[in-house]
Amino acid sequence: MPATAVIHSEDTEARLQKLLLEIEDIPSIPETLMEILKVLDDPDAGPSDLGKVVRMDAPLMARILRLANSPYYSRRGDIADISRCITVLGFRTVRQVAICVSVASSVIPAVAEAGGGLDYRELWRHSVVTGAIARHLAIMLGLPDQEEYFTAGLLHDMGKFVLEIHAPEKYWRVIAERAASGESLLDAENEAFGFDHAMLGAAFGQSWRFPELLVRCCGEHHRCVIGGGQGSDRAVAVISLADYLANTVEPTRSDLGFDPGICDPQGLHDSVGLEIAEVEENLGKMREDIGRAAAFLDLP
User: Fold this and answer.
1) What mean pLDDT do residues 29-34 have?
2) Closest C-alpha to 220, from 13, 7, 52
3) What pLDDT is recorded for position 24?
4) With the C-alpha atoms ordered 57, 58, 63, 67, is the resulting torsion angle positive or negative?
5) Domains by residue range for the chain, with CATH
6) b/e map of 60-96 (b: 16 or more CB within 10 Å)?
7) C-beta separation of 199 from 16 below 8 A
């Protein structure tokens, strides 16, 4: 999107990491998630190693099993054991589910406790919708690791959640005044805080040891990558388009800072490598995917 994108400097990243440490109510990465990421990054680890780690956190295991039995992942609904869950869904998918569950169960309650004016439940719904659309776009494009695109879409606006914890009253005023002034949300955030939600989301992802692709999508989803690059550039472009489509196909019921006037729909589609007409032909199936992803709405 053609809103201002601020390139990180080492000073800015250090300042953001310091800010994250100073926000008393922001949760730190759960120990279980740290162990899960270690196991999945270990080439010698297997399903049994992952199962042992997940079993150490009963609430996390229960949420993973609930999602595994939801229409989004399984039409049978008979996955009762974490080992079978890992076998059916796969190593990498369980990692994505664990990240989503850990973020939702840790961050959303902190946002609710902050008591700001931002409709955080609607922001979470937008996040889920973006994730479902991103996964659908990845399927259309024949991209690998499609569940990672769902996770990237789900987490793309983490910076907004963190800003709501950090300065709930001030952030709500920024969003409300942006609508009146006509400037982009990123510009308004930079004027008010010296950084924007995308930059803060990337810093949060780094502090929680998210994979690099997820960090980049948090930090760069307002940057339109013309030409449909490869690797993480392509992923950023997919999340950018998914974010736009989530705001237009399933518009939010309250103001979260979206302004269609500063968007370039053609450029967003070009950046991914899809025609607008091709995407529009898939809107019905896309909405079906959004409906199946509803199980994620109940995570917080």
Assistant:
1) 92
2) 7
3) 75
4) positive
5) 10-298 (1.10.3210.10)
6) bbebbbebbbbebbeeeeebeebeebbeebeeebbbb
7) yes
pLDDT in tens, 234-261: 899 999 999 999 999 999 999 998 988 7
pTM, rounded to two decimals: 0.91
Q: Which residue has the tokens 């659309």?
A: 133
Q: What is the 3-state secondary structure (H, E, C) of the chain?
A: CCCCCCCCCHHHHHHHHHHHHHCCCCCCCCHHHHHHHHHHHCCCCCHHHHHHHHHCCHHHHHHHHHHHCCCCCCCCCCCCCHHHHHHHHCHHHHHHHHHHHHHHHHHHHHHHHHCCCCCHHHHHHHHHHHHHHHHHHHHHHCCCCHHHHHHHHHHCCHHHHHHHHHCHHHHHHHHHHHHHHCCCHHHHHHHHHCCCHHHHHHHHHHHCCCCHHHHHHHHHCCCCCCCCCCHHHHHHHHHHHHHHHHHHHCCCCCCCCCCHHHCCHHHHHHHHCCCHHHHHHCHHHHHHHHHHHHHHHHCC
* 72-115 confidence digits (pLDDT tens): 887 677 888 998 898 888 888 888 999 999 999 999 999 999 98
pLDDT band with cut points at 50, 70 and 90 for residue 231 = low
Tell me if 38 sits within 8 A of 52, measured CB to CB. no
